[in-house]
Structure formats: C-alpha cells, structure tokens
Write a structure and sequence with these properties.
By secondary structure, the chain is of the alpha/beta class. Helix content is 45%, strand content 13%. It folds into three domains: 33 residues; 216 residues, Aspartate Aminotransferase, domain 2 (3-Layer(aba) Sandwich), CATH 3.40.640; 112 residues, Alpha-Beta Complex (Aspartate Aminotransferase, domain 1), CATH 3.90.1150.10.
C-alpha cells in the first residue's frame, strides 16, 4: 500500500492539501505496516482502524464487484444489507469444499484475511508462552468440536479406536471423540489432600495395543488440577501414540503455557486446542488449533467438511489487533493479580463462616468448602444476586469434582482473563450475603 497522494492543487492551497495527505496517511500507515509485516502490533489498534482494515479485505471479494454477473448457486447473495453487515461483508465465508484453509477464487480478500489470521494466531501462542509451535489454524468451532476435528485427522492414520482420557467431568471433549467414531477410555483420578489429580501410573497401565492417543487437559475447575502433560508427552513418545492437549482456557496463564512448552520439548505433543472466547475475549464459537508439526495442521484443515462462516475468524482477528501484545500482557497481569485477590478474600470469608480454602494448584480459580451449608441454596441465592459463573458442588454428587465421593461440599469461583477487580470484590460481598441468608 503506497503513500496516498492528493491531486487537488487547482482546488485548494498546497499547504492545505498537504495537511490532508498527512492525516490520511497517518490513518492508513498502521494498516500499511501490518500488510507488509503481517504481525500482531505491539500496541492495540482503534476500532476505526480495525474496521477499515477489514473493509479493505472484504471489498476484494467478487460479491462487491459492481459489474460481476453472478449465476452460480453460491454467490454470497444475502436477503438484506443487514445480513451483510452481520458478516462484516465476508459473505462468501472461508475455505473450499475440500480444505478449510484453501484460498477461495470468489473471495480473494477473505482468503488473504484468513491466512493472515492464522499467522497471527501462531504468533500469539508463541509470544504468550509456547515458542516451539510450528503452525496454527483458527476454526469456527468450539473446543469440543475442534477436538473432534483433530481426531478426525488422527483417525485416518490408525486402525484402532481407543483414546485414553484422564477423567474430566465435562462432556464436550468426549462427544468430540465419539463424533468421529472413537472410544474414550476414562482413567479415574486420585485424591491427594484436597486435590484431584490424574493418576499417571493408572494411565500407563491402561495403555494397550489398541490405544491410539491420549487426550490430556490443562484447565478445569478446582478441586481438579491440570494433568501432568510433560509426563504424558514422554509416555506418548515412548509408546508411539498421539497426544492432544485440551488447553481450553490456558493461554491466559503464563504457568500453563510454560508447561506446554516443556511438554513439547520433553516428548510428544501432536496438537493443542484452545478456545478463542475464553482466551481472547471474542464471542463464543471459535478455537485455535496449534501444533509443533506444520504438516499436521494442514492435515487437520483438510478434514473440515465444506466451507465455513468467517465470523469467528474475523472476531479473533479484530480481538488480537485491538489488544496488541502489550494489551494482552496487561490483561494477563490483571488476571494474576485478581487470582491473588480472590484467594485472599475467599479465604477471609471461609474463615468467617468456619470453612476453609481448598488447597489446590490452579492459576485461574479458587474454591472454599461449604460443608456447613446447602450448596444448592448458596448457588441459587448467588444466581438471584446476579453473580454468574460460580460452581457449587454437594458432597456425594457423582459428577463435577472429577472424583467419586469427593469428601467436601465446595464453592468454586474464577478469576479468568477479562475479570475486573470490582467483579472479584462484589462477588465476595454477595457471597457473604448468600451465606448469611442460608445460615
């Protein structure tokens, strides 16, 4: 993109014309640099700059050509201008019928935007803690469906169907496996103090000649702790089986990302799946799939059936440009500080009501016992008090704690990325009110 030149010397004085050129070029310069370097800016962009950049991409697609004669069955026709606005003009979507990452002849602008977005995704994951990744792709699928897509690529390489999964009381990853015809083999966890941990010895015992892969997990609610992904990576390398990490909301945590880097260095990691909404503050519906293998990401992209909506892709694109590297690191700093504040305030409330904090290693969430209170009532009152997101578990429940007969009732609260300090403070104030009501 060259510098913009105005040719209006015959209409206005040259000094005024020069001022106009300076303003226009100041607006266009960030986009020009971005198109040349294709890198996440250090400082985030304004909404106006992001919008202009997206419009420039969208205007390149054939449905914007005023002289085009469109006679195909799929020509990005929309019922009203509103629908086009909802898609931000990317009406053709992304990909081709055989590969989601393939350039689309009718959508050169969208195709360029998608390729750049995938580069930004890889840059983000490398910059935020996993520099030994080689490729990444943003897909318009939530985490569970993205896990299914990864295993669809694995399914083409193997004969057997068994996937070993340390127990996580979350149905989406399991459904993702079952969707592509695989059979999850759930490995029960062990209880160490308050913490529910994967049992590495039990996992090894359950790997058979029919095991094709291990699906490990980094992020879940207390009392469940993250899997020992470094040890799993070593086992996967020794047994020559695939290893996929469900890193649903782990990008926000420097601790978790460093452990993923260590797992890749120590053994075998084939793919890592992370949500765009939980990590990059986008509307729900997208994931970033990354790998230390450039070729494996290409294989995964070829398993996507048909073309796809561009919405989650442009949302990630806009989010990462809006935050920039500095903005995202500031959000991570805030997340870490909020996690410390949550632990402090939740500990004070626990002591006030003769309860205690659960001693769990979790960089995002905390939990306190509520053995002297009805967890369902506490959770219900918090909902009525407009506190969203806490998880109340009643001792003896079969699901939720990732362990049968967990010995405590508890309440879990998160200090995830994007949470404000005032959210933590107000949640504790309303928890105090809820416990008073139940008492």
């Amino acid at each position: 993109m060259k510098e913009f030149e105005l040719k209006f010397e015959d209409l206005i004085p040259q000094n005024m014309m020069k001022k106009g050129e300076i303003i226009i070029n100041s607006i266009l310069r960030p986009i020009k640099i971005f198109w040349e370097q294709r890198r996440i800016p250090d400082e985030g962009w304004s909404d106006e700059t992001i919008e202009l950049c997206l419009k420039l991409f969208a205007w390149m697609d054939t449905d914007k050509d005023p002289k085009a004669v469109r006679i195909g069955e799929r020509e990005a026709r929309v019922a009203s201008p509103l629908l086009s606005k909802l898609a931000f003009g990317f009406n053709h979507g992304i990909g081709r019928s055989g590969e989601i990452a393939a350039p689309q002849p009718k959508a050169p602008g969208t195709s360029i935007m998608y390729q750049i977005t995938n580069r930004l995704a890889l840059q983000a994951l490398k910059k935020f803690g996993v520099p030994n990744l080689k490729n990444a792709i943003v897909v318009p699928l939530s985490t569970g469906m993205s896990i299914g897509l990864v295993f669809a690529a694995i399914r083409q390489k193997v004969v057997h169907k068994e996937v070993v999964c340390p127990r996580i009381d979350h149905t989406s990853p399991i459904k993702g496996l079952e969707l592509v015809g695989l059979k999850p083999k759930i490995i029960e966890n062990r209880l160490i103090g308050d913490a529910v941990q994967m049992d590495i010895d039990e996992l090894q015992k359950n790997i058979t000649e029919k095991t094709i892969a291990i699906l490990s997990t980094t992020t879940f609610f207390p009392p469940r702790e993250m899997d020992q992904i470094k040890e799993i990576a070593k086992i996967a390398a020794e047994r020559d089986i695939f290893h996929v990490i469900n890193n649903a909301y782990g990008v926000q945590s420097r601790i978790i990302m460093k452990k993923i880097q260590g797992a890749i260095d120590a053994g075998r990691v084939d793919a890592i799946v992370q949500s765009t909404d939980k990590n990059f503050l986008t509307p729900i519906g997208g994931s970033v799939i990354a790998s230390p293998s450039e070729a494996f990401i290409e294989e995964i992209s070829k398993c996507y059936a048909g073309r796809a909506t561009a919405a989650p892709i442009i949302q990630f694109f806009a989010a990462i440009l809006s935050m920039g590297i500095q903005g995202y690191e500031k959000l991570r700093d805030l997340q870490e500080n909020n996690r410390k504040l949550l632990e402090k305030l939740l500990g004070e409330i626990a002591e006030k009501y003769n309860e205690r904090l659960l001693q769990i290693s979790n960089p995002i969430a905390c939990a306190m016992t509520i053995n002297n209170y009805n967890p369902r009532k506490v959770g219900g009152i918090l909902y009525e008090l407009r506190v969203t997101g806490p998880r109340a578990y009643e001792k003896g429940e079969k699901k939720g704690a990732c362990f049968d007969n967990y010995p405590n009732s508890y309440l879990c609260l998160n200090a995830a990325i994007g949470t404000r300090e005032s959210d933590i403070q107000n949640a504790i104030i309303r928890l105090d009110e809820a416990l008073n009501q139940v008492k």
